[in-house]
Amino acid sequence: MKPTVSKDKRPVNLDLGSMQLPITAYVSITHRLSGVFLFLVSGLMVWALDTSLRSEEGFNSVASTLTMPLSKAILWLIASALSYHALSGVKHIIMDFGIGETMQGGVTGARIVIALAICLAVFWGVVIW
Amino acid sequence: MVTQVTSFSRSGLSDWLIQRVTSLILLAYFICLAGILLGGVDYGAWKAMHDTTAMRIFTLLAAMSLAAHAWIGLWAVYTDYLTERMLGPRGNLIRRFCQLGTVLALVIYLLWVIEILWG
């Protein structure tokens, strides 16, 4: 017996919010979010390079700014976002070479990225505070 | 309908390759930078290092890579989320406005880095 579902009953839009996303999706979205964040703070990095190279006072003012609690938090956020973005980017390139392209490989890769990113975030925390 | 005129190289294949090459340059640059900063550096050493031709080329290469990498990356994000389907009839206008602002910022950062290194 053939299914009798009419064409109209087929879902038109897939509602992503209605389903549980796999870990690979979260790693991908976070890669994008961290990329957008890094673009937004890239001006800050150029400013720090400019000020630190302009004069000894500038260098010291950047160094002393980075001892303030808020600056430390921002620096930690930038370092952690950069580490995460780099790790998931390297995963992308490894997958471009055909390694870990299966469903299970993708999940394993995503887990490794998260684990290493947490390790690096903790490392930056220890270095900064 | 999303047109390709605002992509970096107007070719998806070329953008794909540029995205990966620039990512490796940025990875090398930030690993070196992290190594230098973790080792501890004073103004004299920091300044002297950035006065060498090799470091100037490396920094400029990283800045150029950042500009291209962010252009391609944000193009991918904008053309996915800032669309007429997601935002309504003004979607394309909003996306082009964001792309224009992004590219302008990236070009300014690049010129700024050149000014820092050789100014």
Set out the fold topology:
The complex is a heterodimer of chains A (129) and B (119).
Chain A lengths: L22 H32 L1 H10 L3 H28 L6 H26 L1
Helix pairs in contact in A: 1-2, 1-3, 3-4
Chain B lengths: L11 H28 L3 H9 L1 H29 L2 H4 L3 H28 L1
Helix pairs in contact in B: 1-3, 3-5
Helix content percent band of chain A: over 70%
Mean pLDDT of chain B: 93
What is the subunit organization of this protein? heterodimer
Number of helices of chain B: 5
Annotated CATH homologous superfamily of the domain at 31-40 and 69-128 in chain A:
Fumarate reductase/succinate dehydrogenase, transmembrane subunit
User: How many strand units of chain A?
Assistant: 0
Provide the CATH topology of chain B. Answer: 3 helical TM bundles of succinate and fumarate reductases
- pLDDT under 50 segments of chain A (min length 5)? none
Structural class of chain A: mainly alpha
User: How many domains would you count in the coordinates of chain B?
Assistant: 1
Q: Helix count of chain A, per DSSP? A: 4
Architecture of the domain at 31-40 and 69-128 in chain A, CATH level 2? Up-down Bundle
Structural classification of chain B: mainly alpha
Proportion in β-strands of chain A: under 5%
Order of helices and strands of chain A: HHHH
For the CA atoms, what is the radius of gyration of chain B? 18 Å
Number of strands of chain B: 0
